[in-house]
Every structure is written in C-alpha cells, then in structure tokens.
Amino acid sequence: MPTLLHLDSSIWPSGTSMSRDVMATFRGEWEARHPHGTVIYRDLAGEPLPHLTGDVFTAGNEDPLRATLASELEQADVVLIAAPMYNLTVPSTLKAWIDQVMVQGRIIGEQPSAAGTPVVVVSSRGSSYRPGTPRDGWDFVVPYLTTLFAGYFGITEVEFIVPELTSAPKRASRSEHIRLYEASRRQAHEDAVTKAKELASRFTKRPG
C-alpha cells in the first residue's frame, strides 16, 4: 500500500485556512482510492519543529529527529506540502522542516534518497502574483521550492496548486476581487481532486 506524507504549515485552522482545506480535499481523494494506505502527517504550525542549530547540523543523520524526518520522506510515495505565502515566501515552520530534513549524504548529496518522489504543493496567497499583475515577480515560494527540490533533493516532479486572492472576502477594498477569489478557490479544489486521482492511480494494482 502506498504512503502519503502530508505536511500542513498554515497558522490558521481548517475552515479558515485555504491551504488546509485544499490539502484535505487532496487527502480525502487519495484515501478514497487507498483506504488501507499509510498517511504520515505533521502539522508544522501546531507542533513546530525546532530550528536547526550548529550542533544538530553537525550531527547530521546521527541526530534522532533529523533521522526520523529523513525516514518519513524516504517512506513517502507522494509528498503533499502546504506552503501558504507569508511575507512573500514560505512559513518559517516549513523552512524549519526543510532545514532539518536536508541530511547531507542521505536526503541530499550524490545520491539523494528520496529522488524522483512526486511532490504536490498547495500555496495559497492573499493577493495575485501572476504575470501581468502589479505584483508580478514577487512570488518567492514557487521558484524557491522548484529550485530547492530539483537542485538538492533530486525531485523534479513538483506540482503547484495556487489558490489566490484569499484576503478578498476580508477586505472591503478588494471586494471586486471576490468573484476571482471564488473561481480560484473552486479551481484549487478541482486541481487537488484531479492530481490526487492521477497520483493514486500510479499505485493501483491492475488485474492480471
């Protein structure tokens, strides 16, 4: 049975957090197809990991926490990551996971042990950073994670689901964006379902 590694990082609870809700849609679709599979779950905001220190960095794979995180990543057939945009980049809690899990000679190095694992990233954001918008070029989530996974983890299959304008319902000045927000939200959930189905099908045994 396949294993899904599910990492939430939003500071907001389900029902309030767009990334958590879209992540839940993906996971629900995945589990419907693999009800006996394994899900490794970490709430990086609810139970944050410690930031990397010099001693822990030096210990590498000998550090129990880093070894555990590396093992969880290695076990995963698919990795599902919430990376809501906070101040133009990823949450510090997600960055702590990245720093801890990048064990030299195991996760990164000449033969990265999780190379080739598909990754799905849900990156919600309050505004829009698409080409042609006023904030075009301000997105430091998608380029960072794309480069990081390809350059260090040996992971080139990284799919981004990007619900935008999540602050529109909360700000009267952006009320004209509510329609675009609703469309983006619907599309994000649809994309989560589609991607979960596609990835789950890779691990479904066919008769004969």
How many domain modules? Answer: 1
The CATH superfamily title: Flavodoxin domain
What is the number of E strands?
Answer: 5
Low-confidence stretches: none
List keywords for this structure.
5 strands, 38% helix, 12% strand, Rossmann fold, flavoprotein, alpha/beta, 6 helices, 208 residues
Textual characterization of the structure:
It is a single chain. The protein is of the alpha/beta class. It has one domain: Rossmann fold. The chain has six helices and five strands. Helix 1 packs parallel to helix 6.
Structural topology:
Elements: E1 3-8, H1 18-33, E2 38-43, H2 54-59, H3 64-75, E3 78-82, H4 92-101, E4 119-122, H5 142-153, E5 158-161, H6 178-201
Helix pairs in contact: 1-6
Briefly summarize what is shown.
It catalyses: N,N-dimethyl-1,4-phenylenediamine + anthranilate + 2 NAD(+) = 2-(4-dimethylaminophenyl)diazenylbenzoate + 2 NADH + 2 H(+); 2 a quinone + NADH + H(+) = 2 a 1,4-benzosemiquinone + NAD(+). This protein is an alpha/beta fold.
